[in-house]
Amino acid sequence: MKLLLIVNTSASSVTARARVVIQKALSADHDVTMAETSRRGHASRLAQGAAADGVEVVAVLGGDGTLNEAANGLAGTDTPVTCLPGGATNVFARTLGIPGDVVDATEHLLRIADDFQPRRVDTGLVNGRHFVFASGVGLDASVVERVDAHPKRKAKFGEWYFTYAAVASFNRKYLFNPPRMVVEPDSGQSSGAVTVIVQNSDPFTYFGTRPIRVTRGAGLETGRLGLAALRRASVIDMPTLIPRIFSGKSETLLRHRQVTDFDPVEGVTVSTADGRPLPVEVDGDFIGDFEQVRYEIAPRSLAVVA
């Protein structure tokens, strides 16, 4: 098997020793080329080149952000991608059932390599960019932006730094006069909001081993996106909202008085309601501020091995 191993050396769990061990293990019976990412977007270009060169599988050793880039390079092609978890959370790898330990994940890949059966899954699109599990507009994206600005703290403290960033971002930007937005699904049901979550798969993320579920109807082969919106985030609402988020049950969260529960959608537009650009994150990476974002589903656009 001809395999490209894309490595993000900056990912939380990727060490020089791990890279050597994994490359040797994979190279014992397969034609393996290793490429290290050097800048944002590099994994997309590496994956595109692999598909053009007839590589049979692209394996990503890194976190969800690197996986997202590789998926954008491979979407619409027949070249499948697989994950070797090296990030802080590794949501997509866990969703696919890939072992959380990178050595165990490598052994798992070797077991299925001789007769792997790629499956095609949906991806979401936000302004034309693919995402594999989720995207957020508003508070969620502000948290990711803050975490991305301090990668060493993210690697050292993991989900606890996300918790700190959530509290800090809420107090700074959302406690008083938060950015306002309008959510307009193609189905016609619209709502005002301060935060929007769009899911291509379930769960939305993890806190340690605990899955965090926000929307309903999301799945890798459903042809729909899960959608939920938070209408207001105040000191009155948050004490009742937070326990529901950590319950692991989306139906519990969606019954909160400040949460709008939408039916799964094929498309939705989120626009600023007060002229302020809206922060957006994709698969756990902050991608910038936008006055409007358009979400759509791309059915069966990505081949995966798991």
- From the N-terminal CA to the C-terminal CA, the straight-line distance is 16 Å
Work out the radius of gyration: 19 Å
Sketch the major β-sheet: 6 strands, antiparallel
- Kindly report the spatial arrangement of strands forming the biggest sheet: 6-5-18-15-8-9
Shape: globular
| Percent strand | 25-35%
Q: What is the number of helices?
A: 10
Query: Residue-averaged pLDDT, rounded?
Result: 92
Q: Uncertain runs with pLDDT below 50, 5 residues or more?
A: none
Descriptive notes:
By secondary structure, this protein is of the alpha+beta class. It folds into 2 domains: 2-117, Rossmann fold (3-Layer(aba) Sandwich), CATH 3.40.50.10330; 129-300, Tumour Suppressor Smad4, CATH 2.60.200.40. Helices cover 32% and strands 31% of the residues. It has 10 helices and 18 strands. The protein has helices at residues 16-27, 42-52, 64-74, 91-95, 102-113, 139-148, 151-157, 159-174, 238-245, 250-254, and strands at residues 2-7, 31-36, 57-62, 81-85, 119-126, 129-131, 134-138, 181-185, 191-193, 195-199, 205-207, 210-212, 226-230, 259-261, 267-272, 278-282, 285-290, 292-304. The strands form 4 sheets. Strands 6-5-18-15-8-9 form a 6-stranded antiparallel β-sheet, covered by helices on one side. A 6-stranded antiparallel β-sheet has the order 14-13-10-7-16-17. Helix 7 packs across helix 8 (159-174). The longest helix has 16 residues, at 159-174.
